[in-house]
Amino acid sequence: MSTLKRFFKDTVIYGIAAVLPRAINILLVKLHTNTLQSEKFAVNTLYFVYAAYFNAFLTYGMETAFFRFFTKEKEKGKVISTSFISILVTTLLFLFLTLIFSVELSGYFGFDKPIYLQILILVTTFDTLLVIPYAYLRVKNRPIRFAFYKILNITIYALLNLVFLIYLPRAIENGSYIPQYFINIYNQYPIVVFIFIANLIASGITFILLIPIIFKFKYDFDTALLKKMLQYAIPLLIASLAYVTNENLDKILLDRMIGKEQMGIYAACYKLGVFMILFIMAFRLGAEPFFFNQAKESNAKETYAKVLKWFTIFGTITLIIIINYIDIFANMLLSKEEYFSALSIVPIILLANLFLGIYYNLAVWYKLTDKTKYGMYFSVLGAAATILINIIFIPKYGYMASAWATLIAYSSMTLISYYYGKKYYSIPYEVKRILFYIVISFILSTISFIFFRQNYLVSTILLILFFVTIYFKEKNELQNIFKK
């Protein structure tokens, strides 16, 4: 099996592991909005925003450091045990300190009940301790097993949501037999708590099932190795925090500067970008270990160049499909027509996320040359652009300013990373062809969006035209990739 063919196969499996949980989460949004009052739904949103920050903070770049040093060091066992023990110690310290001060911290984080934060702390602890076991499955090329645990986790979470939000209320109301102990607990807390409890149970069960992998590790802690790994990882921590800020700050600023209604409309339409994000997630899960494992091959740079070209091709296909059939996707995800007024942000957000995916591809140069500080610089620059553009232009242009801020931030990060990559680790990317696909796809999708909205015959013709263009430009390589 060719290198690229194996990569595509693994990426499809990782794609299932990435897409299915997100798809189920999208379906759960309707259940949550139907069940929760607006202020409790806000608590639910806040919970997962802080979960993103906690996860970035507690993993502190060690996942990527693990991939780098696993392929770089001869003693693989030391890399596994050192990275896991490091995360274990810091996570348990986090658990201990935050639980002690959870009552005081709850108000600071905006939770009116300490139990919200306490559950979040426990969930974050379980999820963080699974980072290295999951990374181990990826680096050992076990995508099916990885996907199994990810899908199992979201399945348990979804089923418990149905039990807590639909079955239990109806059973109690109808007088069905439910032990009084459970009824007392159910009546004691707001219903949003049980969404968090479902999250906790799912994470706990997944952790228990992955314990055998943890015990397979031979624990041989190496302080000198940890120091090198931390030097590599800490800049990635700052980059991760900057990324989380990039993804969430616009909603916070829109809420404070122009009100909850406009923020809600923007946030709802922003969700249409989830399809590009899912594609990027699937790619990253397969690409990161692949890039490091491929580094020692003589044709590694040529392989990286091909991967970026094909990522761009699939990314532009995703972009043009969503924009050409935007009203179909909008009806699938958005429950009320009032949200449709912000659909004009979707092409901008999709293009922004495509650049973000390209940036992740380009990041291979600073990860392989151990210059992760550049990743930190680029991410902080992007976050600074996001903050400035939003603050300056939201009062005048509303949520459109936030959409353009996202595109400017991610495209500028991409261009700067490419410039420095040529200097430190030059890869023969097919830049002209990549730009060609981006420009053509955006032109065709913009024509569809502006002039032929809901004219699906024309939209389909434009999509077919793009497919035909790809086929004739990549015909020879397609035959080489998929030949037996």
Please name the defining characteristics of this protein:
484 residues; mainly alpha; 0% strand; globular
Number of strands: 0
Oligomeric state of the chains present here? single chain
From N to C, what is the helix and strand string? HHHHHHHHHHHHHHHHHHHHH
Share of residues in helices: over 70%
Average pLDDT taken over every residue: 82
User: Helix- and strand-based class?
Assistant: mainly alpha
State which percent range the strand residues make up. Answer: under 5%
Computed over alpha carbons, the radius of gyration is: 23 Å
User: What's the shape?
Assistant: globular
Number of H- or I-type helical stretches: 21
Number of domains: 2
Enumerate the spans where pLDDT stays under 50 for 5 or more consecutive residues.
none
The profile of the biggest β sheet is: none
Query: How far from one another are the termini?
Result: 8 Å
